[in-house]
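stuck on whats below:

***
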Amino acid sequence: MAAPASRRSAKGQPPTPYALVSTPAASSKRAPEPASFIRSERVRLLVTRPPPDGERTAGALRARGHHVLIAPMLRMEALPWELADQAYSGVIMTSANAARVIAGDPHLAKLKGLPTFTVGRHTAEAARAAGFKELHCAEGDRRDLALLLERRIDARAGPLLYLAGEDRAGDVEVKPLVTAVVYRMAKLQRLPVAVEAGLAQGQIDGVLHFSRRSAQAYLECAQRADVLSRALAPLQFCLSCQVAEPLASAQAAGIKIAARPDEPALIELVDNHQPKEPDDERA
């Protein structure tokens, strides 16, 4: 990725706009020009995360002075499932949505006392809120979770129960394992009218993406609204490289990846790209 353009300008002249980091085009086809952050106290952002997390993310960004629109690209739907009668040695969750679904499930009473392993702190907090008592958090990604399980679980013990989503980035690499699909994230078909208008008029400076599936849904909705090129112009803030893949394939003008796959790191990434006053304008 190219480095941001310099902000230094000649005295008395308007400063050069903030340049976004561009992703190299995957072909000779011309990529859209990246949008520039406006020079004001408020950066215009779009959060594509489903509720209730999307509202929390938007609130954190607004507290930092940003103007935020919310356009959830996915909707959680609980699925019917059966709990096989086995002596499980623990429970695995890689999404807070699994914990939210199981919180109202009749099987919860049988599971909440088991050691519970989560990929990140956000999922661990949701699991605790659902009633799970013994929590072990990998504080990272699936590879970190696999290492945690390797250290904590006796391979001779009973199987682990993985409470999973229907569409997921991958499975947990541990055996023995029983996977129960307890929810799915359904794609929404349209962007909110205000978001379509904001993209069409170039009024959105950055878009926050928390999953590959929601990023793909964002592109599909933009295509239906005939604003795809405009939707690719803002800087795309992504939770991970995997999340960014659909946007890179679509030749998004600018992509930035969080240092860690969690909400605080993504918000920090946004904060680090706020415009700053040049030296010759400070008085």
